[in-house]
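batch_manifest entry 22 of 60
target: Cytochrome c domain-containing protein
source organism: Bdellovibrio bacteriovorus
requested by: lab member K.T.
priority: normal
notes from requester: please return tokens only, no post-processing; we will run our own comparison against the previous entry in this batch. if the run fails, retry once and flag.
--- input ---
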Amino acid sequence: MAACGIFLTIPKVAFGTDKELAKTAKALFGIIPAKTAAPDKVTAAQIELGRKIFFDYRLSKDGSTTCVRCHQPQFYSTDRLPQSAGFNNNKGARNAQSILNLKYQDIVHWRNDRTSIEDQALRSFTTHLSFGNSSEKEALKRLELAGYQPLFKDAFPGSGNPLTLENAAAALGSYQRSLTTRAPFDQFLEGDIKALSNQAKKGLNEFITVGCASCHNGTAVGGRTMQKFGVYQNYWNLTKSKNPDKGRQEISKKDEDLYVFKVPSLRNINETAPYFHDASTQDLETAIRWMGKLQLNKDLTDEQVSLIKAFLQSLTGELPKDFRIAPTLSPQPYAGPEPL
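--- output ---
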């Protein structure tokens, strides 16, 4: 099985007290802090520039697409579609993952085919599955016609030529890294034992001792490793997927990467159905049951599934205001689909 990042061996023991559970969980996961230092003036300008680009449909070739099309606030940064679509309604092979809490993740895409958030952002301007511009020149012209020059100048004051796609990608990266969702689970890890219900605490215990945390660990509760989907049997035996996706192998061409995908973050998982790369279930309990069988070779009981679900629900956090509310954009109209 191909893997990268951190795979943890978890002791198969129950925890005697809530404090013991919290101590172990704190070491396995990580806390999203209640407060962070305010960014300096330039960083704040870059974040705001990225925010505006993220919400601006005028920057795509046909005016139909921008980052928020696939990462909608009302759906916790997903679109809840089996396959996400971009320019000209071109559909991708997989559904969109949430971009919330990317700050705490090492892997951007299902197949790890992007080196960073900035790499993903840079490519999005010209790929047919996103903005659809015919060239970098056309993408830059749309930014210019939409009135972005002053914003780039403020965000990159030391640059002789601030309006570049590389700077746009950097701004998008800064904005996306600012989007974190602190949850009751974080309060529990800080020592507020009452922040989680008894069911959620029992579910956390199950999540750790059953083995889920071997892959789903770190502050994002995932997002740090690539793992084979279907360790103990072909995943489509349960998911009934009609055309099994080869995953990372399509990129690396290595046999050991067959059916290997990003281990997704489980933050806000209760709000981001459908589940898995091919959206093979809408039901969180079904997803939990399948993962137990496919990845751990365990038939989870109804009680275990219910408890783990209660824990996962405690990972739902409050949406950041700068994501929940769309920014006001410049008054310039969409430039039209013609080549620029």
